[in-house]
């Protein structure tokens, strides 16, 4: 009779494998009866499986569906490994010796019962003569007792030998237990991967349900090999494709249906987004407008200009030039290059005369006026050109 835990624990078998360019997609089948709580634990998965690739579905249309599936990893001792500790060996040897001793004692009891068989003469009534002793019956009883005791003693010899061996093993286990260290190394454990599923729609006590579980494993590749067979002077040939499959997933693929694919299992393949198509009369493409996006960072070109603020107004007003005929160019001054002939227009002369007072120093006069003499400026103004009213302080 299975317990509740064993009823919800299903074993699975590998059914099919699709090998891709890198990795493989495996399919397992599990079958069993759904417990009352609807939770099933399917075992048999390799440790190399990708937990995010697990998919599960119910085979057939019986109203049962999978509502939850997740991967759980447990620790369990490896299959076929001896996990007996010295204490367990001691207990087993003690039980074996006690059982052998009990069988020997029961055999001794049987021998004592048979050996206690004695012929008893019948009692004579008072006043009657003694009865005849049944010698033949006594002899048959003695023969039966001897034969029975001979068989019982043979069995007793065998049981005593088994008891001696059991007591020796018990003594050896006791000595090993006494010599064993209290800090014994724990046994090696392995990780067991299982899938926990929640099923909905299963009736209590219903029939068996079959599940199909699909998952991916990374350690599998396949390499194609081609062979072309043809005859000389023949127009046709035979091309044979042979695939060599290599896998290190921890599973046995013997007798499993294999399929091959050239796609990459790790590559994301989303569906393409198709452009909308307008159904109607064909129209010519619109002419380009010539406008294009401004270059990046164009607004940063004017940050320095905006941060400087408005230009300060001149300290002295400048009179506008009087309309009239254009005067002839002045004669060259004796000063050469430092004369008034370097002043090009009235606006330049006005800017020179509008210099604030704090810059009117002897050491800056040459740099500001560039060698222009006040006398030449006054003579130029008398000729009809308007200049500022600032005074020169030498």
UniProtKB/TrEMBL annotation:
Residues annotated as domain DUF4139: 211-283
Source organism: Streptomyces zinciresistens K42
Designated name of the protein: DUF4139 domain-containing protein
Domain DUF4140 residue range list: 17-106
Keywords, alphabetical: Coiled coil
Biased composition (Pro residues): 313-333
Disordered: annotated segments: 313-340
Database matches in PANTHER family: DUF4139 DOMAIN-CONTAINING PROTEIN (PTHR31005)
Chloroplast found in the keyword field: no
Residues forming coiled coils: 149-176
Keyword Coiled coil included in the entry's annotation: yes
